[in-house]
Amino acid sequence: MVEHQCLWDPNYPECPERFTRVLERCREYGLVQRCVDIQPRKATSEELLKLHTPDRIELLKGTDGSPDAEALEAISSGYDAIYIHPSTNELALLAAGSTVEIVDAILDGKVQNGMAIVRPPGHHAMKSEYCGYCFFNNVAIAAQHALDNKGVERILIVDWDVHHGQATQQMFYDDPRVLYFSVHRYEHGAFWPNLRESDFHYIGSGAGKGFNVNVPLNKTKMGNADYLAIWHQLLLPLAYEFRPDLVLVSSGFDSALGDEKGEMEITPACYSHLTSSLMGLAQGKLAVILEGGYCLKSLAEGAALTLRTLLGDPCPIISKVDEPSLSIQQSVLSAIYVLRPFWECLQFQGRFDVSKVGSKKEGTYFVPSVTFEGSDVKPTTFATRNCYPDQNRETINLLDQRLDKLIKETSLAVPKHRLCFVYDERMASHRNVNEPGHPERPARITSIYQKLLEYGVLDRCYRLDARDATREELLWLHKADYIDEIAVTAGKKQSTLNQLERQYGSIFICPDTYNAALLSAGSSHQIVESILSGESRSGIGVIRPPGHHAECDEAYGFCFFNNTALAAKYAIEIHQLERILIIDWDVLLTMKFTIITRYTSWYNVLLSLTDDIMCDIVPRILSLYLGKLY
Ligand SMILES: [Zn+2]
Ligand SMILES: [Zn+2]
């Protein structure tokens, strides 16, 4: 796909190096070698005719191999931002066909996800009009194919190219099976393709109303914070509610830092995050298709980091994410305003009565409005030369330096082990002797262990040895007197322990409790050590007794030492970490405590419920989690 180039303007931005530089960078990172090679093929007439008119297909076919550059330029001038090369027909067919092929490979289960490094791009190619370097709409053709031939019911198309994929929007505008989500530079219509229909209030028509989402960028220099805000506030809520069977990305890297067309500032590493958050949808069936991107360095880097993420490598850390800009807040709120009637997930945002706006303080409300600064007049012929921005040398150099610095500072280290795992059956010795059916019982961890064995997960894990937490470690969070109190229970007679345990809430103690609690806490430290030393990427501790209710001087709610809090402390003390996020998704026991205290009679019902849930659902949640980690 390197042959297609402009014969009359050597500086044309849609150039063969776009293709070669991306491939080169992917090879340098050793990524291409890890991919399954899908053989390119030409799109068939049948595939093209689903979305394009016969005359556009024939016209391009007629230019195939033509030696007459003058004639090619004359034809090109009939379209907005188009050049035709003798190889264009062949390669446009190949780009479209290969996109279909990659979608097939994903839907047939041959590959988990895929990336098509193709050109010419596609998202501006309309039904009967070539436009913006595009001839056939690769992504739209593949989407239509998936709907027609592969039993796919819902497709999410995310278009992060800096230009609005107006053609893709048009093709599925009334189709509720395709949720088209585009983020694009707009500047109220002043930016190409200067269309009214690229604004936020174009949300689809007929049955497709609510399934077309435009997030116009009305200012330049939008960065990671802005894009992440769009993802978290709008795209992901809609995507989860939509539940796509397939996700396609119209992946233009002209939204990247350094691109003189886009003038946006997404860093290459941020594309990893944008990609990664889409991988949780549609069972990971995700195809990323190259569209634009004209700063060769950021294009190549962004594309390589995207591919790397598709291959399952961890997302690189991105620098501090600031508050999203006011302009993007307005764009997101505007989109929410018009989409709200169609989506449950958008019902949380507050609304206010416009008639009462005057009584509110300035800045506490937002009223969406539409301004259009584009032109509705469409020319009949278009410039074919010198039609691209001309950034000054100084700006280009500065951006180039910023890019170099970012690339140099971005760590792409991948730990040797994907997942470490710790389990020790000695933690099953801790048990409620007086009430063997107690929910916090040894079977909780032994059954998880059995399930993990059964699913073959353990073969893929890096096994760590459990160890006791040291007294010094426990002292990070627990009082010395309290540690002693628990320590003396070790090996004591059960009758004595029955007395002792009464001083705590929801606690049972047996002669093995102290040792199990030490192992439980120490094992958490083992995992953190393995991850932070760079040995493992993530880890799982199948441990008990649990920890998160344990207070500094009191055992509580089945917990003795606070495993997770101690693990966090370990990261701080031993590895000098500055920021740790603890997510606590435990809910059963928390619920139960509320119910025990408030409605004692429900206690038994919940106990029997937890009997099943503990043994059956917990391993499933775990395996889901493991699936994600793999
Ligand atoms: Zn573009
Ligand atoms: Zn709990």
TrEMBL record:
Entry keyword set: Hydrolase, Nucleus
Signal peptide interval: none
SUPFAM superfamilies: Arginase/deacetylase
Subcellular location: Nucleus
GO CC, one annotated term: histone deacetylase complex
Substrates-to-products reaction catalysed: N(6)-acetyl-L-lysyl-[histone] + H2O = L-lysyl-[histone] + acetate
Superkingdom of the source species: Eukaryota
Biological processes annotated in GO: epigenetic regulation of gene expression
InterPro entries the record matches: HDACs, His_deacetylse_dom, His_deacetylse_dom_sf, Ureohydrolase_dom_sf
A Gene Ontology molecular function term of the record: histone deacetylase activity, hydrolytic mechanism
Main localization, broad class: nucleus
Family (UniProt): Belongs to the histone deacetylase family. HD type 2 subfamily.
Protein name as annotated: Putative Histone deacetylase
Species in which this protein is naturally found: Daphnia magna
